[in-house]
């Protein structure tokens, strides 16, 4: 008992530090309902209950039908975090529900309100009105006079607070936009120099982190409501964008290509469906209003109010007045990828087409942006001189356009694989399946082509130079393929291949094993652990910041999957442990997201100030090459020729001594003098090669040793007398 109480307190403490916890309201209300009994003789059609703490008024609306006239008793069961905390049996006649005394063999309805005594209302903790997405369930069972079960209905209760709020999505989107901007500025600062890496965290790393958070919420396990709400904020990173008009258009396309819209359409989810998760909790307001549950203490004190509070627990609905909308809704049971998409009001059969259209919109935006820059540069060149760096951009705009689209494919490849496989196994439109197959095959072929080209280049450079360093040093190769390996060390350029395989495997595991939570989680744990091992073994990133940021992200991914194992139904872990684990996950992942946001600014500033290591290394290499070339060159004095005496000797420092003028050269007085063989000399020319040749260059008045009659000569080899 102490352990359970401690877990409850820990849950409340963790929830209280979340940002939305300070935005409490004054209303507690139910969120939908679902039947928990088959073949019930009493069918509940509407169940709405709300409590306003400012007025202490409880408002309720209960409606249903019965097959026979019968007297019933109600049993109220209240649970929090999967633990039953309150049980009470009462007679509807005792709390003023005259329409149910007895239950008629027809439709019945009971609407009313009661005021809660102040001493009882004061026992409801204030935090119950602000805690988002708590796990709790209220169940009401109706039994006939002979003890037989005739009805069972359950519902969740919330206060309007949830972690599935637009502010979190906008903040994440802003972080991604800043990462994209800083990555672009880092690329401009590098000036297209080969080997220049992008400072971490890069745009790809940030989007990859957000995609990981979203995919963690797609498994077929029993998530705590707070974590399921939290992961839905990152759906945009996978291409899932809730957009009503877009979904209506997709529904029309599916209807014309073999799709079934009866229970799988935007209209159905919006107006007719009550989403019921595998743990029995419900959600009638996808995305903006999430299920939120008050604590056991709240319900424990509420039910002591004469029977009225019993009606609260037993009723659990979401209105203060009769609602025809609820009475017309049907229970729609969801889990896995379907639950993730349909909580955003995106039908599960629409997921792939939604991502496809969002991808097409992004492609169109990229094309328009690059062509606009091309037009601006062309106009600039007509009326002025554009910088040299931009001239290259202007000439290669087609290649840059293709490279940008390839980057987009590489960025979404993992989630694209997931949605395509899910479309193959759960889609109903033949046209959507064809599009999924064509696009997945095209994207895979595109990445395979670039992988093959880079591999061929690397092997060619290895045969010539002994390593693949020219992938980084050759500017032409760098500009074409650097988006695949720019952040890796030269010795680990190939690591982009395991990264692509990792994304593909992750998508296949989640979509292929959909509906089998244990298989999904165990397989994903293996994939994440293998990737972590590879990073720890190679540490492949050029920058130390990139090494540790990526390793830390991968460690959190592995820990996250280990925590998700506690949500697997087959393992039988109690709900309290699941809720606390979910809260820990939310806090840890929020902290890491905030750290990435800070590092974006800090690392960008540091790397913009500090000189790029590749550029510095290249400068040092060029300097060494220049010095080596100077050592190998023959220093020529302006007064001498290559056809004259032997070269002067180097001193101990590697420098050449100045060559003396001809009349002062020691070689001229040496016994090893050279003379032109007689057969090469023309008569009257003496030792000169050509006596009538023009003067060699302009006369330098500053040289006192130059003779105006100087002629070019050949070396005297000393064997003229022999010939």
What labels describe this entry?
single chain, disordered N terminus, alpha+beta, 723 residues, 8-stranded antiparallel sheet, elongated, 22 helices, 3-stranded mixed sheet
The largest beta-sheet arranges its strands as 5-4-7-8-1-2-3-6
Q: Tell me about the largest β-sheet.
A: 8 strands, antiparallel
Instruction: Provide mean pLDDT, rounded.
Output: 75
**β-sheet strand percentage:** 5-15%
Helix content: 40-55%
C-alpha termini separation:
121 Å
Tell me the number of strands.
Answer: 11
Structural class: alpha+beta
Whole-angstrom Rg: 39 Å
Oligomer: single chain
What is the number of helices?
A: 22
What is the 3D form? elongated
Low-confidence stretches: 1-24, 284-327, 636-648, 663-707
Spell out the blueprint of helices and strands.
Blueprint: H1 2-16, E1 27-35, E2 42-52, E3 57-66, E4 72-80, E5 83-90, E6 107-115, H2 118-121, E7 136-144, E8 149-158, H3 166-190, H4 203-216, H5 225-231, H6 244-256, H7 266-271, E9 273-276, E10 282-283, H8 296-302, H9 308-315, H10 324-327, E11 330-333, H11 336-342, H12 351-383, H13 388-395, H14 397-426, H15 430-465, H16 470-473, H17 475-485, H18 496-512, H19 517-538, H20 544-564, H21 575-609, H22 613-632
Parallel strand pairs: 9-11
Antiparallel strand pairs: 1-2, 1-8, 2-3, 3-6, 4-5, 4-7, 7-8, 9-10
Tell me about this structure.
The chain has 723 residues and is α+β, with helices and mostly antiparallel strands. Helices cover 48% and strands 12% of the residues. It has 22 helices and 11 strands. It has helices at residues 2-16, 118-121, 166-190, 203-216, 225-231, 244-256, 266-271, 296-302, 308-315, 324-327, 336-342, 351-383, 388-395, 397-426, 430-465, 470-473, 475-485, 496-512, 517-538, 544-564, 575-609, 613-632; strands at 27-35, 42-52, 57-66, 72-80, 83-90, 107-115, 136-144, 149-158, 273-276, 282-283, 330-333. The strands form 2 sheets. The chain has an 8-stranded antiparallel β-sheet. A 3-stranded mixed β-sheet has the order 10-9-11. A hairpin with a 6-residue loop joins strand 1 (27-35) and strand 2 (42-52). Helix 1 (2-16) runs parallel beside helix 21, helix 3 packs antiparallel against helix 4 and helix 20 packs antiparallel against helix 21. The protein starts with a helix and ends in a 91-residue tail after the last helix. Residues 1-24, 284-327, 636-648 and 663-707 have low confidence and may be disordered.
């Amino acid at each position: 008992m102490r352990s359970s109480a401690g877990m409850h307190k820990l849950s409340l403490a963790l929830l209280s530090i979340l940002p939305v916890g300070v935005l409490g309201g004054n209303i507690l209300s139910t969120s939908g309902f679902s039947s928990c009994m088959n073949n019930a003789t009493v069918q509940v059609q509407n169940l709405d209950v709300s409590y306003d703490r400012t007025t202490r008024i409880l408002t309720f609306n209960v409606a249903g039908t019965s097959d026979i006239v019968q007297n019933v008793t109600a049993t109220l069961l209240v649970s929090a975090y999967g633990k039953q905390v309150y049980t009470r049996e009462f007679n509807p006649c005792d709390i003023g529900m005259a329409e149910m005394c007895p239950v008629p063999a027809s439709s019945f309805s009971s609407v009313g309100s009661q005021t809660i005594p102040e001493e009882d209302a004061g026992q409801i903790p204030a935090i119950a009105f602000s805690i988002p997405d708590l796990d709790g369930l209220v169940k009401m069972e109706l039994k006939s006079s002979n003890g037989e079960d005739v009805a069972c209905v359950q519902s969740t209760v919330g206060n309007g607070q949830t972690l599935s709020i637009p502010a979190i999505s906008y903040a994440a989107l802003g972080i991604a936009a800043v990462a994209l901007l800083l990555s672009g500025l880092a690329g401009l600062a590098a000036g297209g120099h080969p080997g220049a890496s992008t400072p971490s965290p890069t745009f790809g790393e940030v989007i990859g982190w957000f995609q990981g958070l979203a995919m963690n919420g797609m498994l077929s396990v029993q998530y705590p409501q707070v974590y399921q709400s939290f992961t839905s904020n990152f759906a945009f990173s996978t291409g899932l964008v809730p957009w009503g008009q877009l979904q209506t258009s997709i529904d029309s396309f599916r209807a014309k290509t073999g799709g079934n819209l009866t229970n799988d359409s935007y209209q159905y989810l919006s107006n007719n469906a009550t989403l019921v998760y595998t743990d029995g909790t419900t959600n009638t307001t996808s995305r903006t209003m999430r299920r939120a549950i008050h604590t056991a203490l709240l319900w424990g004190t509420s039910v002591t109010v004469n029977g009225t509070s019993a009606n609260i627990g037993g009723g659990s609905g979401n209105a203060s007045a009769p609602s025809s909308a609820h009475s017309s809704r049907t229970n729609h049971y969801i889990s896995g990828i379907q639950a993730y998409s349909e909580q955003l009001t995106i039908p599960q059969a629409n997921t792939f087409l939604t991502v496809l259209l969002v991808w097409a919109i992004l492609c169109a935006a990229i094309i328009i942006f690059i062509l606009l820059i091309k037009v601006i540069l062309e106009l600039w060149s007509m009326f002025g001189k554009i910088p040299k760096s931009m001239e290259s951009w202007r000439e290669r705009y087609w290649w840059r356009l293709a490279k940008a689209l390839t980057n987009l494919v590489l960025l979404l490849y993992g989630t694209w694989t997931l949605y395509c496989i899910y479309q193959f196994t759960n889609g109903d439109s033949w046209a959507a399946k064809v599009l999924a197959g064509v696009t997945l095959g095209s994207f895979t072929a595109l990445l395979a082509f670039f992988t093959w080209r880079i591999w061929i280049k690397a092997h060619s450079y290895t045969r010539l130079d002994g390593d693949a360093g020219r992938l980084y040093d050759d500017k032409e190769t760098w500009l074409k393929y650097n988006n695949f390996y720019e952040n890796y060390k030269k010795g680990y350029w190939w690591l982009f291949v395991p990264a692509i395989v990792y994304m593909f495997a992750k998508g296949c595991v989640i979509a292929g094993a959909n509906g089998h939570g244990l298989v999904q989680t165990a397989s994903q744990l293996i994939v994440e652990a293998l990737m972590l091992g590879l990073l720890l073994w190679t540490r492949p990133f050029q920058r130390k910041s990139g090494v540790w940021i990526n390793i830390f992200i991968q460690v959190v991914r592995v820990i996250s999957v280990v925590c998700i194992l506690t949500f697997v139904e087959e393992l039988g872990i109690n709900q309290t442990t699941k809720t606390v684990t979910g809260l820990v996950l939310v806090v840890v992942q929020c902290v890491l997201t905030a750290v990435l946001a800070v590092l974006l600014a800090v690392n960008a500033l540091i790397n913009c100030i500090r000189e790029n290591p590749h550029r510095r290394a290249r400068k040092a290499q060029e300097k060494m090459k220049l010095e080596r070339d100077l050592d190998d060159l023959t220093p020529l004095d302006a007064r001498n020729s290559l056809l004259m005496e032997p070269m002067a000797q180097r001193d101990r420092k590697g420098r050449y001594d100045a060559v003396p003028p001809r009349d002062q050269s020691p070689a001229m007085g040496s016994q090893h003098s050279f003379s032109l063989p007689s057969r090469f000399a023309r008569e009257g020319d003496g030792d000169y090669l050509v006596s009538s040749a023009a003067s060699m260059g302009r006369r330098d008045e500053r040289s006192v040793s130059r003779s105006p009659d100087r002629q070019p000569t050949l070396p005297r080899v000393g064997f003229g007398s022999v010939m």
